[in-house]
Hints:
The chain is an all-beta fold and 119 residues long. It is built from no helices and eleven strands. Strands 2, 4, 5, 6, 9, 10 and 11 form a seven-stranded mixed sheet that branches. Strands 1-3-8-7 form a four-stranded antiparallel sheet, with no helix packed on it. It is globular, with a radius of gyration of 14 Å. 31% of the residues are buried.
Amino acid sequence: QVQLVxxxxxxxxxxxxxxxxxxxxxxxxxxxxxGWYRQAPGKQRELxxxxxxxxxxxxxxxxxxxFTISRDNAKNTVALQMNSLKPADTAxxxxxxxVRSINGRRTYWGQGTQVIxxx
Length: 119
């Protein structure tokens, strides 16, 4: 069984920074794309940022220039550095990974971590 566990959410003032981390564990053979999604109340889940195993990244337009994503393939971890946070960034952030394990290839999700940007 593969599990994704996020950490690092919390309350931050506008303009502040937070770093989210996600660790994948289990009988993992390889991880392809890893990423972060977010879902605000009453809104659809949206992709925030993704990164391939080769380090190619993509970002939602709303976070470009403010957020960075990185991963450690040896440790099966991915991190999201969020700077210049805005109230509009308030959401539950979910880690996502495309994993090949003993159960085959499928997408896994973390349980989510709350980010609140407010003064």
